[in-house]
């Protein structure tokens, strides 16, 4: 069932981003997702903690305007 309004959808996305980033400390996209051209989200162990990287985070920040959720994501640009 689609959201009843664009505002409702934006609120849902915002709350999901906040939960994943601040509470779960996880990337917004699933690890291993095939974004395009082999680009993905992946994690590496460093000093006993997982550090997440995203192959498209930097390019998305340059092209996305209204729905740029990468700003909330824990991933670092790869």
Question: What's the arrangement of strands in the largest beta sheet?
Answer: 1-2-3
Identify the overall geometry: globular
Mean pLDDT: 87
**Considering DSSP H and I runs of 4 or more, what fraction of the residues is helical?**
25-40%
Short description:
With 78 residues, the protein is α+β, with helices and mostly antiparallel strands. The chain is built from 2 helices and 3 strands, in the order H-E-E-H-E. The chain has helices at residues 6-23, 57-63; strands at 41-46, 49-54, 76-77.
Topology (SSEs and partners):
Layout: H1 6-23, E1 41-46, E2 49-54, H2 57-63, E3 76-77
Parallel strand pairs: 2-3
Antiparallel strand pairs: 1-2
Features:
single chain; 78 residues; alpha+beta; 3-stranded mixed β-sheet; 32% helix
Describe this structure in words.
The protein has 78 residues and is an alpha+beta fold. 32% of the residues lie in helices and 18% in strands. It has two helices and three strands; from the N terminus they run H-E-E-H-E. Strand 1 and strand 2 (49-54) form a beta hairpin. The longest helix is centred in the N-terminal third of the chain and has 18 residues, at 6-23. It starts with 5 loop residues before the first helix and ends with a strand. 9% of the residues are buried. The model has no long low-confidence stretch (mean pLDDT 87).
């Amino acid at each position: 069932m689609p959201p009843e309004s664009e505002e409702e959808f934006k609120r849902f996305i915002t709350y999901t981003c906040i939960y994943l980033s601040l509470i779960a400390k996880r990337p917004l996209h699933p690890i291993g997702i095939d974004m395009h051209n082999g680009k993905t989200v992946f994690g590496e162990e460093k000093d006993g903690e997982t550090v997440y990287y995203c192959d498209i985070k930097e390019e998305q920040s340059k092209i996305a305007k209204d729905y740029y959720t990468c700003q909330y994501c824990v991933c670092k640009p790869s």
